[in-house]
Amino acid sequence: MARHQAGEPVRITTASASRDEDIAARQKRYLLAMGFRTLCFVAAIFVTPVWLRVVLIIGALVLPYVAVVMANAGSTKSDGFALLDGTSGARQLPPGDDSGRGDGQDHL
C-alpha cells in the first residue's frame, strides 16, 4: 500500500483517496469507456462511409482493453513539488535536555 520509501516524508496533499472513492472512480472510468464502445457499435451500423464504419468497429474492439487498463490503473497524486533534503536556513530548536526532568524548567 505504501508507495513511499521508508523514511520519506508523506505530505497530505499526496495522500490517496479512500478505497471506496478509488473503486467508484475506477467504475466510472470503466462505464464511460464501455458506454463509448456501445456508441461506436451503434454508430457503425448507421454510418454509410466504409472507412468510418471500419474505424468505429476497430474502436469498439479496442475499447474493452483500454477500459480494463484504465480501470486497473491506480490513482496517484503528486503536487509537483519535490521535498529537498538538507538545511533550509530556517532556525531550529536546540536539542533537548537529556537530564530526564522533562518539566521544561531550568534547574540550577
Question: In words, what does this structure look like?
Answer:
By secondary structure, the chain is mainly alpha-helical. The protein has a domain at 15-72. The chain contains 2 helices and no strands. It has helices at residues 19-46, 50-72. Keywords: Membrane, Transmembrane, Transmembrane helix. Pfam families: DUF3099 (PF11298).
Categorize the overall geometry: rod-shaped
Instruction: Count up the helices.
Output: 2
Distance between the termini: 51 Å
* Mean of all residue-level pLDDT scores: 76
Unreliable stretches, pLDDT < 50, 5 or more residues? none
Tell me what portion of residues adopts beta-strand conformation: under 5%
Helix fraction, binned, reads 40-55%
How large is the radius of gyration?
Answer: 27 Å
Task: Report the major sheet.
Answer: none
Count the strands?
0
Q: Give the H and E element order.
A: HH
Strand pairing plus helix content: what structural class? mainly alpha
Organism: Nocardioides islandensis
Pfam family, one: DUF3099
Keywords: Membrane, Transmembrane, Transmembrane helix
Protein name: DUF3099 domain-containing protein
Outline the fold blueprint.
Blueprint: H1 19-46, H2 50-72
Organism: Nocardioides islandensis
Protein name: DUF3099 domain-containing protein
Keywords: Membrane, Transmembrane, Transmembrane helix
